[in-house]
Design brief:
- By secondary structure, this protein is an alpha+beta fold.
- It folds into three domains: 46 residues, Orthogonal Bundle (Helicase, Ruva Protein, domain 3), CATH 1.10.8; 138 residues, 2-Layer Sandwich (Tetrahydropterin Synthase, Chain A); 65 residues, no CATH class.
- It is built from eleven helices and ten strands.
- The strands form four sheets. Strands 1-2-5 form a three-stranded antiparallel sheet.
- A hairpin with a 5-residue loop joins strand 1 and strand 2.
- Helix 3 packs across helix 7.
Length: 274
């Protein structure tokens, strides 16, 4: 029988992130064979993952990362079952590492198939399911590119956002961060009117008309009044038309132009847990 030392246990723990007792047990069962011990821990993760596949993973950490050139960014959420795990330092570090890796890819599927220290990201998630004992998965995956990308992560890693601006100029960093904070706080459904789908517009018009009928407004007036209410809907729910939360005398579009008259918000991405 192989002699398992504390150094062996610590080495396996460093590689896998598993607890000390789990690492010792895996090494004993593998008779000191590290590769076999790692494989056993992953098999444990697969079993737990299968047993917990129907669980909801609505907690975790949402991370936004921007490349060094400030021309591309991603928002990735690493989901788990409980807030306790979601706040764990090692879990948040894994979420940050995966988000940094995600900068190299365009889709969640590409990220899951990517190499992560000798195994795929998908395999790493299964491994961590075994280590933590909860369902662990990639939730949101959003990518944004532009002339300048800024980001914001809300306290507690519950919401993260990206904003794209039309120019990389002095002061763009602060403007992009502030608009990203706006997107986090006000949850716009689209960048502008053009981004709102026809079904949503039709639904809002019908809701407005129903309310007007209940108020006794003549049928002939409904279309014009409903258009006004739709304009208000766009103002409240599209990013560039919203009142800027730090100065409600300005729209978000006007705030961007306060830095440069030609500066435009060209896109945003927002991800949240739950």
């Amino acid at each position: 029988m192989a002699t398992i030392t504390a150094a062996d246990v610590n080495k396996l723990r460093t590689i896998t992130g598993a607890g000390m007792m789990d690492c010792k047990k895996a090494l004993v069962e593998a008779e000191g064979d590290f590769d076999l011990a790692i494989e056993n821990l992953r098999k444990k993760g697969q079993k737990i993952a299968a047993n917990r596949s129907d669980r909801e993973s609505t907690e975790g950490a949402v991370i936004a990362v921007v490349n060094a050139e400030k021309t591309a960014g991603v928002v990735v959420s690493l989901n788990c079952e409980t807030d306790f795990v979601g706040k764990n330092e090692s879990f948040v570090k894994l979420a940050q590492d995966l988000a940094a890796l995600a900068l190299n890819f365009n889709t969640k599927e590409e990220l899951l198939a990517a190499d992560f220290n000798g195994i795929t990201v998908a395999e790493k998630l299964i491994e961590q399911t075994g280590v933590i004992g909860e369902k662990i998965e990639i939730g949101a995956f959003e990518r944004l590119e532009g002339a300048f990308i800024g980001s914001y992560i809300h306290a507690g890693n519950k919401i993260a956002t990206l904003t794209a601006l039309s120019k990389n100029i002095e002061g763009a960093d602060e403007v992009a961060k502030n608009i990203s904070m706006q997107a986090a706080a006000m949850a716009p459904i689209a960048l502008n009117e053009d981004g709102v789908d026809a079904e949503t517009i039709a639904k809002e018009i019908e809701i407005a008309k129903d309310l007007l009928r209940q108020e006794g407004k003549p049928e002939a007036m409904l279309d014009n009044i409903a258009k006004g209410k739709l304009a208000r809907f766009f103002k409240d729910n599209t990013l560039v038309n919203q009142d800027y939360i730090k100065d409600n005398k300005l729209s978000v579009a006007a705030y961007a132009k306060s830095l440069d008259k030609d500066l435009i918000v060209t896109g945003f991405k927002r991800a949240t847990l739950g």
